[in-house]
Design goal:
alpha+beta, about 40% strand
């Protein structure tokens, strides 16, 4: 079983509709604002080792010490339709972290790059049934850190209005 001392920076939940889910999470847990993006562009994607297009939509909010991601996995990479989808951390050395996960019996179920072919790498790993959700690792990347910082700061300044916003509203 994989063990890690990496700080978990995100908890993602599988949902069918990211906008409806973000509205519900905002009301129930006072999380906001959520920034959503539908059919997020990725490249170089592999699903279960096969070159295949990966399609997903996500809404991102912040609660205390974590980013909350609400994810609609349109490609059905993960068999879980609701509940915790994955936890995520930034890998200081992406290749070494991926190798370590595989050595510890985690199966890579997704690899992709955000945006273009030079974009940030991310991958999902299945640690098996005893955990019940996936792990996600990210390349250590300034763009990603800036996005996390933006969502965090927006949560501190949020006055309860406009709980769900399109990602294009990020300046």
């Amino acid at each position: 079983m994989f063990s890690s001392n990496k700080p978990i920076i995100q908890i993602a939940y599988a949902v069918e509709n990211i906008i409806v889910a973000a509205e519900n999470w905002s009301k129930r847990f006072n999380i906001g604002p959520f920034y959503y993006n539908e059919h997020i562009e990725v490249t170089d994607s592999r699903i279960n080792g096969i070159n295949k297009n990966f399609d997903h939509s996500s809404a991102y909010g912040w609660k205390e010490n974590f980013m909350i991601e609400l994810i609609a996995d349109h490609s059905k990479v993960n068999v879980h339709e609701n509940g915790i989808h994955h936890i995520a951390w930034i890998a200081e050395n992406f290749d070494r972290e991926a190798e370590e996960l595989i050595k510890q019996d985690c199966k890579e179920v997704l690899f992709a790059r955000a945006g273009d072919r030079n974009g940030m790498r991310f991958a999902w790993f299945d640690p098996g049934r005893d955990i019940g959700h996936l792990y996600e690792i990210y390349d250590n990347n300034d763009s990603l850190k800036n996005f996390y910082s933006y969502v965090y700061k927006a949560s501190l300044e949020w006055d309860g209005t406009s709980p769900v916003r399109h990602i294009s509203e990020i300046g």
